[in-house]
Amino acid sequence: MPCDPFPEDDRVVALREVSIPPAAEITVIIQIRNHRGCLIPLNSSIPVNSKHMPYVLEVAKIFQHVRPKPRTIPMTVINKTMKTRLQTIDRRIQRLEDLLPQIKLRRDEKLSQVAESHSWKGVLTRAPLW
Q1: Which of 27, 45, 52, 113 is 20 to 30 Å from the Cα of 76, by its Cα?
Q2: Please, are residues 60 and 48 in contact by the beta-carbon 8 Å criterion?
C-alpha cells in the first residue's frame, strides 16, 4: 500500500511565522514548488493549494545547485557609466544656473509688457460676487 502524504483527516498544517534575526547573515533561500515541481514566486497572489495539488517548501543554501558566474559587467564599466551620467547632469545644472539671470530678466520684461498693456479705469466693470 503506497504511503499517502496527506491522510484523509482534513487537518491543515500552516507555516505561521519564520523569524530571522535582523543581524543574521542570510545564507538560506525559501522556495515553493507546485505539484509539477515548478518554482512559484513568493508574492501575495499565490493560488490556494489542496491535498491533490500540494506545494513543496524547500529551504536551500544560496548557490547550492549552481556555481555563480563572475559579474558579466565589470565594476569599472558600471563606475564609468555612472560617472558620465553624473557629469552630464552636472553640466545641465551649470547651464541652467548660468541662464537663471537671463530667465529672470525675460520674465520681468514680459510682466512689465503685460502690465503696460492693461490700464486701470478705477471702477469695477462687473459687480463682485461677494
Answers
A1: 27
A2: no
